[in-house]
Amino acid sequence: MSGRAAASGRETIERIAARAGFEVHWEDANKATHRVKPDTLATLLTALGLPCDTREQAKETLAMLDAERAEPPLPPLVTAECHRATALPVASLNAGATYRIELERGGVIEGRLGTPKGESPLLAPISEPGYHVLELGDQRVRLAVAPPRCYTIADACRDAGGPPEARRTNDDAPRAAAIWGIGAQLYGLRRVGDGGIGDYTALASLARRGAQAGADAMAISPTHAMFSADPGKISPYSPSSRLLLNVAHIDPASVFGADAFAAVLDAHGAEGAAPLREQWAALEALPLIDWRNVVKLRLTVLRALYERFCAHDRAGTSAAAPLARDFDAFCAQGGHALEDHARFEAIDAIQRGQHGIGHWRDWPDSLTDPRHPRVQAFAREHRHEVDFHLFLQWLAAKGLKGAQQAAREAGMAIGLVTDLAVGCDGAGSHAWSYRDDMLQRVSVGAPPDLFNQAGQAWGLTTFSPRAMRTQGFSAFIDMLRATFAYGGGLRIDHVLGLQRLWLVPKGASAADGAYLRYPLTDCLRLIALESLRHRAIVIGEDLGTVPDGFRERLARHGLLGIRVLWFERSADRGTFTAPPQWSRTAIATTTTHDLPTVAGWWSGADIAWRDRIGQTAPRADGRDPVALANAERAADRHALWRAFQLAGVAATGVGAPPKDQAPIDEALGFVASTPAPLALYPLEDLLGLTDQPNLPGSIDEHPNWRRRLDAPLDALFEDSALNDRLLALANKRGRAARSSTAPASPATAPSESPDKP
């Protein structure tokens, strides 16, 4: 043990860690049990604000945690579930104490606490979901009462006029909705005049095209805000903030018109540089996104439009400034979160550009606190610059909302399914503006497993579970609302993090981490409540080492899981699961952004890429690992082809196609035949592409997050091959709906028994 752990003692450190929610002992993918190092626990405890560097500190921290456990205070927010008695997490209330609940929509409920012998005091069941106010004596707390489940696909289809067949043919529809959608990497979309990156206008076009083909959902890569001053940070899963939007996807012509945009492009660029129009066209012609230059040029163009906006719209009369009024309303609605982000962007640009400082913790002390008077003074002194970043967020919000509106108006029951990253960059605006809510100097990741024997540290931070409770889950709720606001569905990346997250101390090996438990019950209830309020479905990415019972918990609350073709296999991996045996409480898809496409898997392109960039580990027995991987893939191809034949989506009596002729239609048809309520077809597979968007474990060795479609969307949809493929898949999903006997939703019958965390 190091000095820190030795000074406090292993036993004391482990007791503190257990009280704080760490799993001192954990089980890996091979069912082997491990014990977390005391040094790791000590470092992680400090990150939670529980210092134990010395024996005296450890003693005080343990005493505080023991006191909290013996007499827990009533937290600022208590979650409950409709129609279920609620156990209050406090033991010091008198038996039969009276309470009063002010309902969010008006009305009052009064009653007395139930006090079962030896149990926590109980609130009687409440039938109305919402954020209510609970009064207990002189205490007033927020009471978040959730519906039994999230808003579901069946709900969305009903609200849209019934399942697809009912909406499109007026026939009596089956009880279970079986719809389909397209998955797309927003940045990779291509349209004429986009300047080298996918934008919200292209997304709206794709949504319309998809809806015309029968799609009811459009799942997209995260649209979280990135770093305007550091466009080299490009992973959409490592954002600056999960509260705001990526301004790189703004179409400059969308609000101010083609003429204003053209006037800016026709202006000369910087001295010695090519005119803006030439730069725009050159970037658009590239096969891969040049993020640095694309973002730089886009900001130049948008800044010129901003100056025009300030000179004409904001300075005009009330009759001439409808856009200015809309902008002002947007800023007022955005509140502190929006203003903080804009201030951060302005400060970050100066600190990086003038001082070479890349992390806000290294800024002058007065600027590291968003509530410090110096930050307020900065905002006054640089109001024009701060407003520029508000302007960018306004345009981004209009663009993304416009894409969702286009999807719904074209007939989609759900429309956009936005993506919520598991964390954010600790150097970004989210961690700066919510610094008391975030973990510091740790990275979210994953322990060693069958696919990544070294473990993973993603360089992300997220909320502290202690802060979530003490701050009344306000930051978590803000994040949910920000992501739900722009679509009809939400995908939660690494949803396992709602129960526990693998945390790695800064600078440590990814294997030297520990699991920290999160308040799963509270999180699921809040997600269900916000899902209902936004009328949006919820999908949880539940891939990896899944704790026992976790998927059942998700299903009970109406969160859909994800099932991927490559992983739906028998225990011995000898056969692929037949479509009828796929889950009815999860969406079905061929692949994800982190996995091979159908063409890439069939050809072994992923194996070749991993060998090319050094991700193939040598074997102790001296055998060639690449040859072994290819031999295993050959056997897998035959097994998958056999599964296709048995499912009736491939011709019988013929062998599997060669490596360079991937059975893409068969793979998509196989997924379409499952009883999943939503089949999601990645655009890469619909187009038969070989390369996957991201290769985990790589940065610059593989062109992650840079690939663009080969042709503009209009040209792709003029190709009969794509349209024929979509028509065939729509027909197959229609047959899946007619043959399905699944219930309309996974709702749980109301119960009078308490639901305890």
Automatic annotation (TrEMBL):
Keyword ATP-binding: no
Molecular function GO labels: 4-alpha-glucanotransferase activity
InterPro entries recorded: GH, Glyco_hydro_77
Superkingdom, taxonomy of origin: Bacteria
Catalytic reactions of this protein: Transfers a segment of a (1->4)-alpha-D-glucan to a new position in an acceptor, which may be glucose or a (1->4)-alpha-D-glucan
Record's keyword terms, sorted: Carbohydrate metabolism, Glycosyltransferase, Transferase
Disordered as annotated region, ranges: 732-757
Compositional bias per record (Low complexity), positions renumbered to this chain: 737-757
NCBIfam families assigned: malQ
Protein name: 4-alpha-glucanotransferase
Lineage of the species this protein comes from: Bacteria, Pseudomonadati, Pseudomonadota, Betaproteobacteria, Burkholderiales
